[in-house]
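Bench log, entry 3. Co-assembly request; chain sequences pasted below exactly as received.
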Amino acid sequence: MLEIPLITTENFITYALNGLSRGMIIFLVASGLSLIFGLIGLINFAHGAMLALGGYGTYVVIQATGNFWLGLVVSVLLVSLLGLALERKVLYWIYDEPLLGFLSTFGIGLVIEEALAVYFGSRSYTVQSPLSQSVEVLGVSYPSYRLFVILVGAAVALGVGLVLVKTRLGLEIHATANMQSTAEILGVDTARIYTITFVLGTALAALAGALTAPITSMYPTIGLDYITMAFLVIIVGGMGSFKGSFVVSMIVGQVIAFGWLVLSPTYVRILVFAAAMVFILYKPRGFFGKAEVHE
Amino acid sequence: MSDRLSDVRDVARGLPRRPLLAVGVLLLLAVPFLFPGQSDLATEALIFGLFAISVDIVLGYAGLLSLAPAAFFGLGAYTVAKLVVDYGQSFWLGFPLAIVLALILAFVVGYVPIKRRIGNVYFVLFTLAFGAIVHDFFFVTTWLTGGSDGLGFFGPPEVLGIDLGGSTAYYYLTLGAVATVGYGLYVLIKSDYGDVLHATRQNELRMRYLGYDTNRELMIAWLVSAAVSAFAGAVYVGLVGIASPSLVSFALTGDVIIWIIVGGTGTLLGPFAAAIGLVFTQELLQNLWQGGYRLLLGVLFVVFVFVLPDGLVGLLRGDE
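Structure output for the full assembly:
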């Protein structure tokens, strides 16, 4: 059954880079989910729809202006605004009930995806890559757009990571996640922290959608494929652990890239999901999870 | 709005139960005569109604939100299809086999999470992964399941000179099966066991102090639900004649959750009625507004979650 292909140094580097760019996209989705889940305890099932909106938004702006970069910025901004409105108007009063929160976001995601399906139809769309040439990396020729995705992912990881560790906002987020009432007594505006975190998470999902548009074709329910994977990544990485979602996203990216050498993509997915199921049962806090687990 | 609403409630409460039930039964019996040519749609609605009931047992009574009910529905459908199409076995043999396979799979998958009490949030994610695996598995194992082509085509056999492949005959067969199984579930829920399950959902810790093995109670609900879902899937494949990956898809799982929320969780009759009503609504809207049905469904779902969390049944009862 298994055919072990010949691995040369050159295609090894190509596969590793493919795994890295794939891992970065997963990371952008997973880190947003993880921040929202870790802080608010909300299984945000609308996260995938936000990713789809980011992708479609980019497509619409490109159709109008022909500029990918403008599309990326505009769609991320607009989706973030939508996230802000959702959090302020709808979600904030169901935070105490995880099941209701899940159902609400499930419904909101469904409405967004079906609205996309009604407006654009269920056929898939593709976006022209803004960087079509290849560059030389470690002696192999590699598409420059995928390299750009890797750099953006790394920059976001570093940037958000530094904000979480070095700034007062990060401190307040940690305080709110770990001990909300104490944080409030000490003067932290936890409602504001919730809003900021939710909007940041949404922006990351939209960014992932916009970045992935030139790589894969878009369809209304594209987000579902990503968030299933992303949820399992944050389980293995540890709920609410930013570092955990980064490390595990990178590992999963490599597992997928090299797994495809010997198995069909679907079998690789099955294996990744099965591993995550075992993790949920026996190590629900994952590799890096320390914070209190939300029930 | 509330005045008119309470009028509706008063009417609903004031209606005599038995005659109402009799009218309902007569209506269901008369469907092939009232709507000639629509029997298949009515059959589909009944099957999905039973499916919704089976999932309501775990969601509404046991309080476990599973994102994998379609896995068991599809397993039932594929079991029958596999036996008939690939092995040339009897259509009827598929039913007990589907139930046994569903029980085994449900036990294997449910034992550890229920025993370890992993909590609602993790159970949702656990079943999300399980549902995705089952869907991928049915999609990719072409040698076993036919892959994206599925397994078809076949119809139920002829019994005592009656061709069950005919729309009307299969409708009555389904009606009988759904009524029998549905009544069985009703009896189960109204029994002491149903009370224990209800109490467990309210306060599991206290039930444990009282000496109940709540894990066992939840496990029973989980197994019953899986078995009935698989049975519904088996009946369904007799209607459509082909088992395809859409029967194990997340979309079907989403639909059944919506039926339950709209009908009212933990009411059995509510999800049953909502499933039937929404299947007919879908058929009606299909011709008027392509694709609009699912958007409407989403909006309806959000409204129910936020405004009417007790569903249609709660609305009629006037629960606060």
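Chain B touches chain A at residues 65, 112-113, 116, 118-122, 124-126, 128-130, 132-133, 136-137, 139-140, 250, 254, 257, 261, 291-292, 294-295, 297-299, 301-302, 305-306, 309 (CB under 8 Å). Chain B has 15 helices and four strands.
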